[in-house]
């Protein structure tokens, strides 16, 4: 086995200490991504890049209010969770609740499998009148506005934009 020169030993120590420093920084960053303080039943985002997801089922089940309040709650939740928020997951939670409350809606929902959320909402609105369907309609409208960039243009979202 060959012996290392002084320069090689220094380089090895330097590399080792840099590795430890990077690992320590990574662990600190990881902790900050998971640290969320809850205020007003919504978490306060410490890092907008966090991928922590809200509890969509609880959000849907606990809601009792007007559609304006629902619209505002969805936007607040989106802002609070940043990149961890998914409109599709929220829509899925509402659809699950609709199936529970209106078992006959299963046929309508299954017939629309693979189609857009907008198509599902239209079919449900034609056959039923329910708060959950109205909530799903709001989510569909916000989803469309989000992907068209309207929420950012109207300053309704405040994360991830420079």
Short description:
The protein is mainly alpha-helical.
Your description of this structure?
This protein is mainly alpha-helical and 162 residues long. It has two domains: 1-34; 48-153, no CATH class. 65% of the residues lie in helices and 4% in strands. It contains eight helices and two strands; from the N terminus they run αββααααααα. The chain has helices spanning 6-34, 56-62, 67-81, 87-101, 105-111, 117-127, 131-148, 150-153, and strands spanning 37-39, 42-44. Strands 1-2 form a two-stranded antiparallel ribbon. Helix 4 packs antiparallel against helix 7 (131-148) and helix 6 packs antiparallel against helix 7 (131-148). The radius of gyration is 23 Å and the shape is elongated. Residues 33-40 have low confidence and may be disordered.
Topology:
Elements: H1 6-34, E1 37-39, E2 42-44, H2 56-62, H3 67-81, H4 87-101, H5 105-111, H6 117-127, H7 131-148, H8 150-153
Please tell me the total number of domains: 2
Shape: elongated
Largest sheet, spatial ordering of strands: 1-2
Largest sheet: 2 strands, antiparallel
Q: Count every beta strand, where a strand is a DSSP E run of 2 or more residues.
A: 2
- Overall mean confidence score, pLDDT: 81
The share of residues in helices is 55-70%
Question: Beta-sheet strand percentage?
Answer: under 5%
- In terms of quaternary structure, the protein is single chain
Q: Secondary-structure element sequence?
A: HEEHHHHHHH
**Segments where pLDDT lies below 50 for 5+ residues?**
33-40
């Amino acid at each position: 086995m060959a012996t290392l020169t002084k320069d090689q030993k220094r380089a090895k120590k330097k590399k080792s200490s840099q590795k430890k420093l990077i690992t320590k920084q990574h662990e600190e960053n990881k902790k900050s991504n998971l640290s969320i303080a809850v205020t007003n039943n919504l978490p306060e985002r410490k890092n907008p890049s966090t991928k922590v997801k809200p509890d969509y089922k609880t959000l849907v089940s606990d809601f009792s209010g007007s559609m304006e309040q629902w619209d505002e709650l969805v936007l607040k939740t989106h802002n609070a969770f940043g990149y961890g928020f998914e409109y599709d997951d929220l829509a899925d939670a509402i659809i699950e609740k609709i199936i529970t409350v209106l078992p006959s809606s299963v046929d309508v929902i299954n017939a629309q499998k693979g189609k857009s959320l907008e198509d599902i909402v239209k079919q449900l609105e034609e056959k039923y009148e329910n708060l959950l369907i109205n909530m799903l309609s709001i989510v569909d409208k916000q989803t469309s506005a989000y992907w068209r960039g309207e929420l950012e243009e109207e300053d309704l979202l405040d994360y991830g934009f420079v």
